[in-house]
Amino acid sequence: MTVQYSELIQPERVHGSLYTDQDIFAEELQRIWYRTWVCVGHVSEVARPGDYVRKKVASQDVIMTRSKDGEVSLLLNRCAHRGNLVCEDQRGNSSTFRCPYHGWTYRNTGEMLGYPYNQGYGGKGKLSLNLGRVPRVDTYQGFVFASFAADGPSLKEHLGAAAGELDRLARLSPEGEIELTAGWLQHRAKANWKLLVENETDGYHPQFVHGSVFSVTGSHIGTLYSDKSAAVTRDLGGGHSENDLRPEFRKMEPMNWFGTSEARVPDYVAKMRALHGEQAEEILIEGAPHVMVFPNLFVAEISVFMINPVAVDETVQNVTAVQLKGAPEMNRRLLSQCIGSVGPAGMLLADDSEMYERNQRGVAARVPEWLDIRRGAHRERIDENGFRIGAANDETGMRGFWSHYRSLMEGKAR
Amino acid sequence: MSGVAGHIGLDVREAERFLYREARLADEHDYDGWEALWTDDALYWVPAGGDDTDPERQMSVIYDNRHRIATRIKQLKTGKRYAQSPPSNLRRLISNVEIVTVEGTDTVVGANFLIVESRERGTTMWAGRATYRLRRAGDDIRLAYKKVVLVDSAQALFTLAFLI
Ligand code: FES
Ligand SMILES: [Fe+2]
Fold first, then answer.
1. Does the pTM of the predicted model rise above 0.80?
2. Do A182 and B156 touch (CB under 8 A)?
3. What is the dotted CATH code of the domain comprising B17-150?
4. Residue nearest to atom 4 of ligand 1 (CA)
């Protein structure tokens, strides 16, 4: 069966089968997850030579390692002999991996080191079977990306305008770097991965889905997405999109973007002013981005999410708190606020998760066949940088996602 | 254990009575009743990725002080906490109750649990070991600390929005 994506993905609606069809899911693995750039982690998770941590790229079990030269590699966790896992610990420090089945050993860069009873292979050094490696690994602002395609657009090309949003995140650190060192919550949902992606920059739902927590905490987040908001949703191209909340934050005081005031984080604010001079005000007022980097990295101001598809109707969303290098005072608050919001018991994300699980059950219904994504199409405009923008609660980001998805699935883009 | 500590400390029957009651209030979504069990210095903690993490530096599933417990309860009571609206059908078994130690005015109690949660998503089993700190308050007993270590704490978890 050849799926006609141009029929299933139209400018203002997408077909329900895109979330339920096994064949489409299988094709997505080939055309998106095993070809384009997928975010797998952050260099700070393997800070020292020999550090390793297990990761997933869709269903692929990979080991992120740091060699003694400092290079970060992604090795496939599969022995070159008979396929056993060479690494079963989730994290650790070792310059080698030893397969437990027949004792073959490998360097943490993937090269074979040796194998027992070598006469069976005609003597020492006769075999050169290495661990599989993800062909292309690159980093941006410390985020580690993987591409299973040996060639194709570079990471920089893939990120396009989204790179600037990761820069905005990093510049919040007094040392210009973020770290992801707080470990990950793994939140499992019975929903197609695209429902999660769509939800991430959907500014239409917060007031409804999160009304319960906004009402009891007095949070102003809901109004950022109201009809009166000056915030915008921006299609950054390449399937990336953002909710740009800066137009609202600019009306507020420094650190209000984080729901706090400078008096409560004096050391951090002082460090930022010392480092950035006058430009510090802009940074402290505008705060962190809210950006979805196609296909699986989502930064929601203080939290970093990596989406991992498991099956057509199952996804794991990994999430951790942004930690700013050189800002211990902020980091405790970032961690605490992140824990309160996200993950299986989070006051925000548990309700989002409930919505995409209900979506998944709903789209199984046969009629109507389509999901509507037209909100705000009539009032979209092009901003001064050439990006398509809509109101804070328009579906501009979703339409950008689908148009890129379609070109990948039709083989017109990589 | 001195006579005084013996009076401050709880015996295992008293501890069990308290744990069973706490379990029933949670299972039956008696939010006010459950919240009233906590002391002002309360800590409610569900670690992620093992049981020996540092909650001040590592992500946890839940790490609530008394103030955040109150927020969590208020959110549930809005009726629009969709992850618990409708609420899960729950029943839990508590067993292997042991008095671990008495520290000052707190009796530290350990117990295993198995919770069956039924929602439209399906039935989920949650199992693990909980550690409680119980404190006498007049004729009552209060809960100062509850740490819930899931056997699945290192795996991907479905939404856990009920009171565990
Ligand atoms: S499968 Fe790894 S050594 Fe045989
Ligand atoms: Fe949401």
1. yes
2. no
3. 3.10.450.50
4. A102
